[in-house]
Every structure is written in C-alpha cells, then in structure tokens.
Amino acid sequence: MSDYTPKERLARILTGQSVDRMAAISVTQTGTVEQMEACGAFWPQANEDAQLMANLGEAGHTVVGFEAVRVPFDITAEAEFFGCQIKAGTQEQQPSVVGHVVKSVDDIAKLEGYSLDHGRIGVVCEAIKILADKYGKELPIIGSMIGPFSLAQHLNGDDWFMNIFTDENLGLKLMEFSTAFSVAYAKKMVENGADTMVIIDPTASYQLIGAEFYEKFVVPFHKKLVDAMNELNVPTVLHICGDTTAGLALMESSGVNAISIDQNVDPATAVNAVKKALIVGNLDPVNVLWNKTPEFIKEKSKEVLDAGVALLAPGCGIVSKTPTVNLQAMVEMAKAHKY
Predict the structure, then answer these.
(1) Start and end of every Uroporphyrinogen decarboxylase (URO-D) domain (predicted)?
(2) Residues 6 or more apart in contact with residue 220 via CB below 8 angstroms
(3) Which among 75, 42, 35 has a CA at the least distance from the CA of 317?
(4) What is the CATH number of the domain that holds 174?
(5) 46-99 residue pLDDT tens
C-alpha cells in the first residue's frame, strides 16, 4: 500500500521523483454533462458562480475518479475580464471570444489598473479556494489559465498573427502586458490554494508561427510565467493544440515541468524529443474518449502508456458528452500503471 496521497504523488511525478504508480488526472478541462447531472452544477452557470464551479470541478473526482480537482472549464474568462465580447456558452458548449479590444499600443494602456477580484477571474480564484479548503490536504488543486500568447490573440483578434510579423512593437508590448497579467493571475490562484498550474496556449503554435517567431514571442514570456511558479514551488504543465512535434524542444526551453500533447502527436516521438520535461497525453477526446467503448479506450490507453508518457490524459479538453464510464476506463488504466 502506498504512503503517497494523490497530492504527493502528482507533485513527485511532476518534479521527477519516484512514485509507486501513475496518477490519474486530466490537465485539460474535465466538465461533462453526466457530471453536471450528478452534482447539480450546469454550464453556463457553473462558469460564472464560484460554488457551482467548485461543485463541477469536484465531480471530476467524486463522479469520474480523477485524483485531482481542476478549474475552470473554458479559456475565455481572461479575455472577458478585459472587455472582449463573448459568445455565451450552453450546457454542452463552452463560450467563445467574438470581439476584441486592442488595435494599437495606446489601447493596451487603457487595460491597466485591473483588480483580480472582479469578473470571472475572481470567480475562478474563489472556486479554487473552496476546493482547496475541502481537498487541499489530499488532492492536487489544479489551476488552469489561457497562455499569454493566446490571450494576446484574443485581445487583438485575427490581426494578431499579421501584427507579430509586421508590427514588432505592438506584438512585444501586448505580450509583456498579457504575461504580466498571467503571472499576477497565476499567483492569485496559488494564493487561493492551487498547487499545480496548467497553461493552455492553443494558438502559440510552432506550426502557425514558425521557430523564429516562437522564440521571440512565446518562449521568453512562457519562461517568465514558469519562473514565477517555480519561485512558489508550483509545477507547470504546458498544453498547445495541434501537431507540436517539431516545436517540442522550444516548448521545453521555457522550463515547464511537463508538456501536454494532443492526439496529433506521436507520443513515443514526443517522449524522445525532450530532455527533462515530462510528456502528458494523449487520448483523442473525440474519436476515442467520446465515441468509443471502454474496452477500446483501454486498448488505446495501453498503446499510449507503452510509448512512455508520464501521465495518461486526454489530448485536449474533454468533450462535454463524454460518458463517465469511458473516462473511468482511462482512470483505471492510469492507476494500474507502474513506471
């Protein structure tokens, strides 16, 4: 019998220490309709109310069996906080950003002077406190946030990718702003009880912007956020969507403890592409976890485990209609795996 609590086990894994077995967690969003029905906390209200958010975050543990609790469930709260227009989510669908607030360097200055106690940012921090007060001694409390590059894109809109090519001043100023906010927000989550930080930066893609611009507009800013978490002894996990194979070494150079890969990446290739960072993933959330049987999920889980990942997990956010029994099949495989 292990002497490790789930909190201790995950912390040891993420910091390269020996453990008895794999931890069963999801670093990406965990909410599903079946969990909502079980705990009475439904989207979109659970995105906006701290107690409901905590209840649904808790259901990932009490209903599915994940050995951690994690919030929030979407990546639009940060953009909404700064005044971006948001398309409201539904019980089955997450909200999305449809309007933007930064067109010039002058617009960035107008966003300064914010308070992290307001808006859904404050809701997320309060939900973390609720979960930490209840589970903080035994379970990992996972805080998650959109990464600074994707936040900059939310603030600037579709012009962002052209702007980093043609207006370096605007690009770097906006990255400095979004990163300073990200650091402050992450520290607030830690202050409220988060002990693990997941950075979801979907558009910070090597595929989209190439090595030169990834090195200039992503790596140093991810490093600032990671360094801030290192000072607080909080391990970090970085998730970027798409086929990140060619960019894994650059992703690792920010100093993150682990890299979450999506289903487009070959896990064995990913494991061999990094020196220190752990690889997390990468069951397809749609074509495996949602649409297949528990038996098939166990087979695919074995393939991913055999590739040498440090943590078995979904390759991206869990689809809201995913059956609980399918997620439990992944959890079972993770718990049974010895390193």
Answers:
(1) 5-336
(2) none
(3) 75
(4) 3.20.20.210
(5) 999 999 999 999 999 999 999 999 999 999 999 999 999 999 999 999 999 999
